Backbone:
């Protein structure tokens, strides 16, 4: 008999699958070779996938996955080992939340914009959480306020938090309620600390930011789903530096900037890439202040294949 389940964790060849009947978690493996549903991916199943599985051994707690159920959406990153392939991070996500910090460690605007472009391409709402307010001086707070106004105006909900003093924790908790949220961000930005502050029973592992090169130390190896309360899930995702632009052609990138998408088909040339073509409405909007220079610089970096993600 096949049972429906939810994939909570993947460790390569084994999957933690939660039984939809009673919540019991089974250790499951795949039955034979799986077709990757037309995707060039290194792994056929992602955290957040719903599957049909068969109980193989109820003493050893083993099961066999027979079928992946249709996905609402999915998120991939470039495969570390196979350049032509992607790696599935998560499936059936309601929103993707980037935890960002302007200091210790600094999340660059290029990284934020790449994340948002990737999430736009997956048709998933993006949210920005600016953490570590306690470390900001007045000038940085003013800069952050301007950033939040910018991204809010583009349709990306923004909140400010400080996990250590409970600032913004209620809005953060409300943001997650009743949804499946993919949490991303550089190591050291406080993802785990934020989640532990609103759901201490989870006790997600945290590590201090390394002062060497001001980079965080990676604590998450595999994507994993946690249930904060019934119907509220978070997916903690590792290695999002490679997120997103794997299969994106340069001429597509502007479609995933909402402020550029509004100007679609208004340039003089249909194939305008908004770089140095005459009659470009995007460049005109940048010069008039309608499109933020930081966003346009991020766009140019992506089109040019540069790396501004640090």
Residues:
């Amino acid at each position: 008999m096949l049972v429906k389940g939810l994939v909570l964790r993947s460790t390569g060849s084994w999957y933690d699958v939660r039984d939809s009947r009673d919540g019991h978690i089974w250790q499951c493996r795949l039955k034979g070779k799986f077709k990757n549903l037309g995707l060039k991916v290194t792994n056929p199943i992602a955290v957040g996938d719903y599957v049909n599985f068969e109980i193989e051994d109820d003493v050893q707690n083993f099961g066999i996955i027979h079928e992946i159920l249709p996905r609402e959406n999915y998120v991939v990153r470039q495969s570390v080992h196979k350049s032509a392939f992607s790696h599935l991070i998560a499936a059936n996500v309601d929103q993707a939340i980037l935890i960002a910090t302007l200091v210790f460690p600094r999340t660059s605007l290029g990284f934020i914009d790449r994340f948002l472009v990737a999430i736009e391409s997956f048709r998933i709402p993006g949210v920005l959480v600016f953490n570590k307010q306690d470390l900001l001086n007045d000038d940085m707070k003013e800069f952050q306020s301007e950033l939040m106004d910018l991204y809010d105006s583009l349709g990306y909900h923004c909140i400010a938090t400080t996990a250590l003093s409970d600032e913004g924790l209620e809005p953060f908790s409300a943001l997650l309620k009743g949804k499946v949220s993919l949490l991303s961000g550089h190591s050291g930005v406080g993802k785990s600390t934020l989640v532990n502050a609103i759901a201490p029973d989870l006790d997600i592992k945290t590590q201090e930011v390394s002062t060497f090169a001001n980079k965080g130390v990676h604590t998450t190896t595999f994507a994993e789903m946690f249930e904060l309360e019934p119907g509220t899930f978070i997916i903690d995702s590792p290695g999002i530096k490679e997120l997103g632009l794997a299969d994106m052609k340069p001429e597509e990138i502007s479609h995933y900037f909402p402020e550029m998408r509004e100007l679609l088909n208004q340039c003089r040339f249909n194939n305008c890439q908004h770089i140095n073509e005459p009659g470009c409405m995007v460049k005109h909007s940048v010069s008039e202040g309608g499109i933020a220079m930081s966003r346009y610089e991020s766009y140019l970096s992506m089109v040019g294949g540069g790396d501004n993600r640090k």
